[in-house]
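*** Protein under study ***
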Amino acid sequence: MATFAQWVEGARPRTLPNAIAPVIAGTGAAAWLHAACWWKALLALAVAVALIIGVNYANDYSDGIRGTDDVRAGPLRLVGSKVATPRAVLTAAVVSMALAAVAGLVLAAVSAPWLIAVGAVCIAGAWLYTGGKRPYGYLGLGEVAVFVFFGLVAVLGTQYTQALRIDWVGAAIAVAMGAMSSAVLVANNLRDIPTDKESGKITLAVRLGDARTRLLYQGLLAVAFALTLVLMSATPWAAVGLIALPLAVRAARPVRKRLGGKDLIPVLRDTGLTMLVWAVAVAIALAIR
């Protein structure tokens, strides 16, 4: 039976910035429209965090029963390492997604009921990433999904539920968040290219190959910081987002140096930290202008 620490590791806490940062940034975008609402932000945060934990457990379950995680260089996988049964991990995934659904229903009820349909699509996307007969994560579409769900939907959804409208500032932030969220997955899949090839998991990194995947990672970070300059046309205070640039440089260093395997694990942590610092800085900038 897995220990509590192993369950926590299986939830992949390094990915939590992918859920937290877009909500912070989206709340900043709502503040830009003079409509920030703390309790709606907390509901959006509950949806995002529960959903990403559910995604991670569902991914662990689906990859584990397929044998994809039998040999890994990355963090612990519960099913693949046989420290937890597939049924237990599936239950954890379902419970997490159910919590996300409940918080999402409440948020939709107090903002716009049509958002229930968006939430249903998000949950379906979470499961079908590695679940089902034709998981899109095995077809090289994982980064696209992350860009959409943890970039566009998370940021603009957070802004909309608080302000009941979106604007170009929110859209620019959403694209920046999507780019950084996708960069986290690119780094993860870069590390796993050798084992994914063997198991038949054809990620975007497998399709592009090692060299082009490294360029993609750096390009995604560059997009996020280019958009920081764009946001400065709304308010010069947005320049404080550049405070995250040294973290991005540190995150990209192992990628630029062509390191592999376990040496790429810190890239996930540092990219997530870059996202979080950037989101907080830009949100504050938009709130104070």
Summary: The domain at 15-288 is CATH 1.10.600 (Farnesyl Diphosphate Synthase). The chain is about 70% helix and 0% strand. The radius of gyration is 18 Å.
